[in-house]
Amino acid sequence: MSTHRAQGRADLLVSGLSTLYTLAPDGPGAADELGRAEGQSVAFRDGALWWIGPQAHEPEADEIIDGDGLIGLPGLVDPHTHAVWAGSRAAEFARRLAGVPYSQILEEGGGILSTVAATRRADRGALAEDARARLVGLRSHGITTVEVKSGYGLRPDAELRCLRAAADCNDTVRVVPTFLGAHTVPAEWRHQRDRYVRQIIEEQLPLVAPHADFIDVYCDRGAFSLDEAVAILQAGRAMGLRIKAHAEQVCHTGIAAAAAALGAVSVEHLERIDEAGIAALAAHGTVAVLLPGAQLYLRDPAPPVAALRSAGVVLALGTDLNPGSSPVHDPWAVATLATLIQGFTIPEAVRGITRSAGAALARPELGWLGVGSAADMAIFAPPPGEPPEVESLVQHLGAHRALYVIRDGTLVVG
Length: 414
Ligand SMILES: [Zn+2]
Hints:
The chain contains 15 helices and 16 strands. By secondary structure, it is an alpha/beta fold. The longest helix has 16 residues, at 124-139. The relative contact order is 0.15. Zinc ion binds at residues 80, 82, 246, 320.
């Protein structure tokens, strides 16, 4: 990074941004907690971020984006989605609003079981087509990296097909694939859950491990027990996968502390994490991924954000995009909800969908801007009549516009 005049010619230049947020500890705006600086330019060359500095020193470039009046941020990161699924749960949503309990919907084969049935019937092309359209939607809000979980196949062939469909979408955004065979016990193993756990470990994992970066489990009442979850995570770790866990959402199980002790990169949800769990996350450097969309749809209490913050736990935010409990397609809506229903500050919410979300994927090059970062950027117009500041993007629900999105130094939106 340099404030000296650049020597040479850039492929792509974002010139004279009214407000740039680098999220970097050095470079322009280093004194500000979000790296806020005015009148800066960002240059890309050969697929890399090549130069950042004041507009007066910017290099020549083949292609120039005029940043006047606009807000520049690193490409956003969504560290928690279930973006590969088939079928619709809209009718179920209407029934739940009318007061039908989810347990009754499940008994009738609805809820997640209906998503599993529809996903098993879909071929890889159809799964990838719908997932790609969802990821294009996320990208339209400035996202360039998305974690995508399997978990609606729940048998070896179908779990593999979901992970392959996710990988097929890597041309849209950078896809980070996670294996979630332990999402729920499928209907056919309901009375032999130990055999399903064995199938995950002995049949699903060896097949899917080459196609995933992470293993995840849903440890909760109605899903997998603490002992089952730990055995599955250990087996995944032995196959070379990094660890995540759906943790302490409906009930407190102790999985957050157990996963942290196993070296989990992140644990997610955490509405019911306790003091010991928070201490374990802090001790092991495990990222907390909070999902305010699911909290809202399930009318849950907020996770203990103040306690997580004072323990020094890194706080990331995800959409949890899925067809049932969090059909949320917009990271800015998540940032807004995090401030309103979880007690995030605006800078925490912005870090939560950028740099901290990159940390939740063990990808430290994501979610900030500087030499050595990913060459990903999102450029926004503020809501009408608002100043070009992140405060306006977070305050106004649904009024941001991502005019340009850059991935690996190439313009992909705009
Ligand atoms: Zn989830």
